[in-house]
Amino acid sequence: MTVRERVIASLEHRQPDRTPYHVGFTEPSRTAMAAWYGDTRFEEKLGNCLLTLGTEPDGAWREVRPDVWADQFGVEWDRSIDRDIGNVVNRLVTPGTLASYRFPEPAEPSRWSRHRELIAAAGDRYVVTNLGFSLFERAWTLAGMETVLAAMIEEPAFVHALLDRILAYNLAIIDRACAFPIDAMMFGDDWGQQRGLIMGPALWREFIGPRVRAMYGAVKKAGKKVFIHSCGKVDGLFAELADAGLDCFNPFQPEVIDVAAAKRAHGERLSFYGGISTQRTLPYGSVDEVRAEVRRLLEVVGRDGGLIASPAHAIPRDAKPANIAAMIEELQSQ
Would the pLDDT of 294 be above 90? Predict the structure, then answer.
């Protein structure tokens, strides 16, 4: 089977000849592994199964002050410590300014100018267009985390209006992305922390759920698969997400989700992407423990398809290079 055929089989809950896998890195871990392998182009040789396309226009990021970068929405991110994402340091939207705030233009040609070229060069990889910070995350980056959470109780009309504007923008992006010959759309939207949903299930169902259904429905109408990246303990939503049209859940954190139990309970309807511990095993485990965890994931969760094996997140800076290399060897040697 080709890499793409393995992904398709897995998402269709059929047993591929080998479980597809994808390994992503933060900048510090990428630098560490380039030194480990003595090869700055080591990622090209990993055998990763996904080609991920973005939706940002040219010039989406600009450094406005030392180590502070503004994105296409005007949100400013301090990257003095976290070089990959950063911390939001401004606030653009309030109840009084929402109506006048201008969203970026979804039809900006540079968003899409290289899509056909990149898709043509994808080889046998499975092509996914990613829309990160897609709903709740976009709301709090614009208006502030505390403001959004408090307003869900004290000023719900503001949160609904903000999320509706984000949804309209997202649907326009989805419509354009799905016009290309991609395989799936992935949405990034962290709803969880280590013990459950940040906003709780009732507020998730009021504010997030209906808009998730609209976005997933638009992707399914276009004949594409739906992926979601949502960190934390959000497995209580799996049935509802499947009902909404979700095909594949990421990052599938074994620290907060029993991955074997999730496969038993939801494996007929959902596939999973992740499952290798980035909070415990890769930074603190031994090489033997890493190998055992990867083999167990492949054997238990990967049985009968339904798995893209992966670290539960882009590998952080504290993961040991020897452990990362052992994980890669186990994935490659299936």
Answer: yes
Domain holding 115, by residue range, is 7-332
0.85 surpassed by pTM: yes
Q: Which tens digits make up the pLDDT trace of 207-259?
A: 999 999 999 999 999 999 999 999 999 999 999 999 999 999 999 999 999 99
Tokens linked to 15: 């047993």
Residue 133: HSE in the Cβ half-sphere, 13 Å Cα cutoff? 16
Exposure string (b/e) for 119-140, b if CB count within 10 Å is 16 or more?
beebeebbbbbbbebbbbbbbb
Q: Where do the H-state alpha helices sit in the chain?
A: 3-11, 27-37, 115-120, 136-143, 145-154, 156-177, 201-203, 209-221, 238-244, 259-266, 281-284, 287-296, 321-332
Count of C-beta atoms within a 10 Å radius of residue 90: 15
Q: What is the model's pLDDT at position 83?
A: 87
Q: Which CATH number characterizes residue 19's domain?
A: 3.20.20.210
**CA–CA dist 78, 69 (Å, integer):** 7
